Amino acid sequence: MSGTAQYSASLSASADATRRLRSKDVGPVPCSLLGVKEVRARGTMGPGSGEELVSTTKFLKAHEREPRLPDPAKPAPKERRKAPLVPRDDKPLMGLSSGRDFLSTNVAEAAAATPKYQDQEEVRYVFKPYFGELPPYLQQRKREQAEQREAAARAAQPQQDEEEGVQVLRGEALEELLRHLKLKWQSLNEAYVRLPCVTDTPSKKRRKEELEAQLTEIERDVRMLSKASVVRIGA
């Protein structure tokens, strides 16, 4: 290697060493600020002239930045629920009298008072005047219905009498007809009961059927006449 090349290599090595040892801070630093990380403008001499000074009482206290409830309002005075006690030196009036005789008044009021509980007499229905009979109101309704039927029969009587060849039955005549029908039914029923249980011949079957038909017809007539007040029979 030539000498010129060696000289150039030494110069570059010294330049690299100088670059590695150079401080990162730019410019000279006073001795009073050595080791200080943050430089404050009024850290040594305080605020400058003309600046508004901060009161020493206005400093950040513990829990000052936390939300706080408003101060409670003054409670309203409560009304007195009980009367005040009587003073010890308060003396009641003595010797007053109303002049009323409470003993006599109490006796008179007790004698005139109505008893709170009165024994109720047990109702004995067996002693009623209509016990075991039809009640009076039902008898009255029955009479009214009978009068209405009689009035309707009297109103229809002239028209019925005008028709020729028609027999009108009412009252006792109608009851007599019902009585005869019931007697006839009774005699037919006795004959029906005397029939033999076994009807093995045509004559026995025919006799049984005739009696049953007559009994059914009489029963129907009796039911119809029992509900009617006037019966018209054609000639």
From TrEMBL:
One of its GO terms (molecular function) is calmodulin binding. One of its GO terms (cellular component) is cilium. PROSITE patterns: ENKURIN. Residues 61-71, 141-152 have a biased composition (Basic and acidic residues). The keyword Ligase does not apply. Keywords: Cell projection, Coiled coil, Cytoplasm, Cytoskeleton. Residues 201-228 form a coiled coil. It is found in: Cell projection, Cilium; Cytoplasm, Cytoskeleton. Residues 1-15 have a biased composition (Polar residues). InterPro entries: Enkurin_dom, Enkurin_domain-protein. Residues 141-233 form the Enkurin domain. Its main location: other. Residues 1-28, 42-98, 141-165 are annotated as: Disordered. The keyword Membrane does not apply. This is Enkurin. It comes from Micractinium conductrix. The lineage of its organism: Eukaryota, Viridiplantae, Chlorophyta, core chlorophytes, Trebouxiophyceae.
